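All the exercises in this workshop are built on plain-text protein records. There is nothing in a record beyond a sequence line and a structure line. A learned vocabulary of local backbone shapes supplies the integers on the structure line. The question running through the whole workshop is how a given chain folds. Here is such a record, shown just as it appears in the course material:

***
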Amino acid sequence: MNIEKLRTDFVRDGFVLVPKFLTEKELSELERESNEAIKKNQMPVTGMGIKGLDRFHPWFYEQLRSGKHVKLIEALLEDDVEPVHAGFFDRTPGEKTGISPHVDAVGHGSSGATIWIALDKTDAGNGCMYYAPRSHLQDYENSLNLRFDTSPKNAFPVEINPGDAAIHNARTVHWSCANKSQRSRRSVIYLYWAASSKPYNIKKRAKNT
């Protein structure tokens, strides 16, 4: 893994893809623990997924803080990180809505990153995620539903295999479409803030003082 190249691409584009990030053994463990967490949660997995796996499943609590991905996130951000949450997402077969364009830093405004690890093969057919390259360099309205042009010229499809990882800046615009297939599109995510950054509301107050 060429960390310097990954960092260069991450800074330039707002995201990177890391093929075969997990070994087969690590992928099996992640899938097993995800299934266990879903059972503990006792709620159906909707299009919005389940956030906060770390709050009720010890394995995800530890992974959020010391998983193999943490050092990579710190290298990409060139900073220590503050863990936010672990989540599970699934575009279930036939799901019709997808997720509208948004940034993970909405309401927060800090520097940060999300790592998205595929449990299933993901492509345009089963509702893959899309990134807007270099969108992290722009300012957007503070909304979960951005008015954003999702035409192909602005969209990079995240078509990856189980065990691959996609990592994006918390200010990178991303979205997903409906799952028109009969295949699931499951993933696990971990979100972090850069330790030296401040929440949006703190920055806003500072400007007004």
Notes: The chain has one domain: 3-207. The radius of gyration is 16 Å. Residues 3-207 form a domain with the Jelly Rolls fold (CATH 2.60.120.620). Residues 201-209 have pLDDT under 50 and may be disordered.
